[in-house]
Amino acid sequence: MDIQLLGCVEARVRTGERVPLAHGTKLLLAALAWTPGTFVADEVLAERVWSERLPQHPREALYIQATRLRKALGGVGRTDEAFELTRRRGGYVLAVDEQSVDTVRFRTLVRQARLSTRDGDTERALGLFVRALDLWSGEPLSDVRTPWAETARVALRREHREALVGSAELGLRSGRVEECLRRLSRLADMHPFDEKVTGLLMLALHQAGRQADALDCFDLLRLRMADLLGCEPGPELRSLRERILARDPDLVPAAAHSATPS
């Protein structure tokens, strides 16, 4: 069984067949799969599923949705699709292989990528980052509109941004400039005040031989910050601007020289 939270909430069997789920049942699946294999109390589940629109009898409503979820998942189950939704006193446990949930796989791959980075294995780290980022198929929990889901989305967006930044830093060090440029441009649009992202985009543009565009990125951020925040970019970004102006050769790794226009 594969459970998707990095997009709309879905359950699929290993063959790729999607399990049909009613909306309420899908909400319960998301609430349980957020912490697979962990006991979740009725009160917590009710908060995740319904928030301020609690039914008159939340425990009975949870029981009904749990019964429907068991029936839906059991209806397409195979001998190798181990899962169990267990009722325990005061709550439920969704017993599945943790790696069947895409959020868990994402975090595992990112953790492995960082370990490989620390060990100096750049190629393996980049491959792991790519596999992690490829798990994203849209806005996380996109069809769950509760305060709990919004809090989860904020956390996941932050993790996604950190993985993209880590991947871009490695990519630039290994000369994958054009590939990083595409991702960093999208990331800068998503985080227009993020100085770390702007700095990486400036560096990628500089390494691609687009010095003027790199400096324009700095100027745009400075204008935005002055107009909307009443402050200037920090010293690290200002220092990067000066180094780009001076065409500091250390900003372009040897691996990127062959791809940089003369």
State the helix count: 11
In the CATH hierarchy, the architecture of the largest domain is Orthogonal Bundle
In total, the number of domains comes to: 2
CATH H level of the largest domain: which superfamily? Winged helix-like DNA-binding domain superfamily/Winged helix DNA-binding domain
Strand order of the largest sheet: 3-5-4
What's the main sheet like?
3 strands, antiparallel
Low-confidence parts lasting 5 or more residues at pLDDT below 50?
A: 257-262
Q: Encode the helix/strand succession as letters.
A: EEHEHHEEHHHHHHHH
For the secondary structure, the number of strands is 5
Determine and state the CATH class of the largest domain: Mainly Alpha
- The end-to-end span amounts to 52 Å
Question: How would you describe the shape?
Answer: elongated
Average the pLDDT over all residues and give the rounded result. Answer: 90
Which structural class do you get from the secondary structure elements?
mainly alpha
Please name the CATH topology of the largest domain: Arc Repressor Mutant, subunit A
- Which percent range fits the helix content? 55-70%
Which percent band covers the strand fraction? 5-15%
**C-alpha-based Rg, rounded:** 23 Å
